[in-house]
Amino acid sequence: MSDPITIQDIYNLFERSEQKFDRLFTEAEQERLKSKEELDRLMVEAEQKRVKSQEDFDRRMVKLEATIERTNQQIAGLSSRWGEFVENLVRPGLERLFQARGIDVKETHPNVTSNRPNVSMEVDILAINGKELVVVEVKSNLTQAEVDEFLRKLPRFKQAFPAYANYTVYGAVAGIKVTKEVSRYAYKKGLFVIVQAGEIVRLANDSKFQPHSW
Predict the structure, then answer these.
(1) What is the 3-state secondary structure (H, E, C) of 161-186?
(2) C-alpha pair distances (Å), 104 with each of 129, 138, 191
(3) Could you give the angle at which helices 144-153 and 180-188 cross, rounded to 10 degrees?
(4) Predicted confidence band of residue 46 (pLDDT cuts 50, 70, 90)
(5) Which residues contact 175 (CB under 8 A, 6 or more apart)?
(6) pLDDT over 90, % of the chain
(7) Which among 104, 121, 112, 126 has a CA at the least distance from the CA of 172?
(8) What phi and psi values does residue 138 have, to the nearest 5 degrees?
(9) Which uninterrupted H or E stretch holds 73?
């Protein structure tokens, strides 16, 4: 027969249970604090990484902006040199070149634009006399594809500029760099070819050349 349970036994049971609860609570609290510390550490690391990433991004943006600024300055410099090539080398020589070929040029007009619907057009230089004109396309490095594009433009010129409908229209291509192959190609297509020759420009076309008219 088992001993009867006493009040002391019940107290002892509660005491052991309370001790176990306190131990479990303490362990749980320690684990919670450990987890919180780990979470705080991870959050600090994440913030540090975010700040570092932002700083890296800002540095890259500063470098990129500096590169863009240098590129813009280079482009502006090229544009300026390009304008100088057109204004100071090609345009002043047109009267001399074409008058020698029997086209008595009296006027030259740079950057002529037509905004008529379906026939908008930009012309680098127009060289004009009373009944004839030369449409001049200027390129830095003239290619055959650019010659072909210009040849597609010329038949539409009088639609884009109806004031010259009764003129005889010739075409000319000019370039800082023009290969012999491209020069011959443009020649065969009936275009005047203007090339740089030191401080002046000259026509690459020989005396046998017969220009095509539009």
Answers:
(1) CHHHCCCEEEEEEEEEEECHHHHHHH
(2) 6, 21, 17
(3) 20
(4) confident
(5) 138, 139, 140, 141, 142, 194, 195, 196
(6) 41
(7) 126
(8) -115, 130
(9) helix 7-84
